[in-house]
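Our consortium's second objective concerns turning raw sequence data into structural hypotheses that experimental partners can test. To show how far this objective has progressed, the report includes one record in full. It was chosen at random from the queue rather than selected for favorable results. The single chain below, 301 residues long, was entered without modification.
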Amino acid sequence: MYDAKDPRSKMKQSSETAGKQPVLDYADVELMEFHKSPPQESGPGYKTWYGRGQNFVLAYTEAEPGTVLSRDDQPDEYMTFFPEKRTVVDIETANGSASDVRYKLAIIPPGASKITVKEGGQVVRLFSSVAPDLCEISANAESYREPHPNIAPYQPWPNPPEGFKLRLYPMDAQNAPGQFMNLYRSTNLMINLFPVVDVERDQDRLSPHSHEDFEQCSLTLQGNYRHYLRWPWIPNRKAWRDDRIIDCESPSITVIPSQVVHTSIPTPKPPCHLIDIFAPPRFDFSRMDGWVKNADEYPMP
């Protein structure tokens, strides 16, 4: 369903889904517009909202200088990034530290970690769902009391050969010719760091598509986005759903269910900023040579 000029049109169909059971039911979309509800955590100088999908938890924080965000005994890696160039932080982890971190994506090793905000702004942290305290605090925790349909069982990818340690990557790394995605992965997450959009999207070249067995989390950090969603008909008439058009304001997350056809546009006009998150990493993106910028550090299964 991709335009022929879209690099994603060259991806091969995943073989992991061969022989799977037919779709019998669907999940609904999850939408959380953070400023329209109270934060799940707050303190002097900061507010944090939590939202989850089946395999991940996202923590969005608005922080003033002096804010400390810590994990005492995190069971696996997590990602954090600072999408505003004004934000400056210090990061301390069980295996590596860094000072004056600005406009970076960080992969934090398991164990104890601390992020100290020196110059305020947005701080986004991405966790897998293996930490029960984070799952429980999420605003939409009730939606995942039972697993959503059509999602493959969660399985982390192999450990990095050089071991777990603090890793830092630029938010604005240059893409190879013909690419438009800024992809990184860890053992449990994949992130697509789209740049800020400063032009309107060509309405003749949208990209409606669906994902066979995983959710997509679209994080809106700036401006507004419109998501178009379609649940294909299946034999179970009771599972049929009407098409949806969802307008979301920043900051927000939209968790798009497996099997649902979707595409998005910034609205009403740029600048807008949207970032896509997946858990665990995607095989189809990972199989494309050169797409994942840190692939040499994180092997595929």
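The partners drew two points from this record. The domain at 7-286 is CATH 2.60.120.10 (Jelly Rolls). Residues 132-137 form the longest helix (6 residues). Both points have been shared with the crystallography group to help prioritize constructs.
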